[in-house]
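Long-time lurker, first post. I've been practising inverse folding by hand and with some scripts of my own, and I keep getting stuck on stretches where the structure tokens seem ambiguous. Below is the full token string for one chain I'm working on. Before anyone asks, I'm not after the true native sequence, just a reasonable design that respects the backbone. If someone could post their per-position residues I'd love to compare against what I wrote down in my notebook.
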């Protein structure tokens, strides 16, 4: 808010954004403050030893869910849209040109933008779930992603286990700092008149 002329990137993991800082994330979306959130979703708390995060798929194994995760996982994109983010898009580390393009578009959005970058973790998540090595996980992204344009004409059951990539949501809404400054200016004007 102090330096609205800056372009700010907020780089987070899936655990940071949806659990540890989940409350902050929801309200940043709601306020539509001009930040570019990039969420590296590796489906696990990587740095602290492979605990399950809210994005670990149900049934998958983590150090805290050795018998399979009993919880249902979030869809960050739906969460961001429902909470009020004005640019919501996803890509994977296999689809780098698309990731580049959506990050550029998120900077162009005056408001809270959320980019989900699917980033495989072969050690903390892949090994426990028999996903193969890093190359196999990258290939899984290649073989199981579908563009949002194609997904629109597909059966919901067909896209259930796919990664839908592209710009999933965009909406126009007042940006938080602009709205705040408008109100301050109006209050000052009223003060001068009285
Ligand atoms: C408020 C708070 N609680 C807990 C931690 C400890 N902590 C640091 S990183 C981390 C896991 C982060 O996982 P994720 O966001 O998925 O990122 P990754 O390590 O997988 O890249 C935790 C629990 C912290 N730094 N701050």
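-- Answer (accepted) --
I ran through it position by position. Result:
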């Amino acid at each position: 808010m102090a330096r609205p002329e800056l372009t700010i990137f907020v780089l987070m993991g899936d655990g940071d954004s949806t659990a540890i800082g989940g409350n902050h994330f929801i309200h940043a979306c709601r306020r539509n403050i001009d930040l570019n959130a990039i969420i590296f979703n590796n489906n696990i708390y990587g740095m602290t030893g492979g605990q399950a995060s809210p994005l670990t798929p149900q049934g998958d194994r983590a150090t805290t869910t050795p018998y399979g995760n009993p919880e249902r996982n979030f869809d960050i994109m739906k969460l961001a849209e429902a909470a009020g983010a004005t640019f919501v898009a996803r890509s994977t580390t296999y689809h780098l040109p698309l990731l580049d393009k959506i990050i550029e578009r998120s900077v162009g959005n005056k408001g809270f933008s959320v980019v989900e970058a699917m980033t495989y973790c072969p050690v903390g998540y892949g090994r426990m779930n028999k996903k193969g090595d890093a190359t196999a996980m990258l290939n899984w992204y290649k073989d199981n992603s579908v563009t949002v344009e194609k997904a629109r004409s597909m059966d919901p059951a067909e896209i259930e286990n796919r990664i839908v990539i592209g710009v999933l949501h965009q909406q126009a809404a007042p940006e938080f700092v602009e709205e705040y400054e408008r109100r301050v200016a109006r209050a000052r004007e009223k003060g001068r008149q009285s």
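A couple of notes from the structure itself: The pocket of thiamine diphosphate is lined by residues 13-16, 20, 40, 42, 44-48, 53 (CB under 6 Å). The radius of gyration is 19 Å. Happy to go over any region you disagree with.
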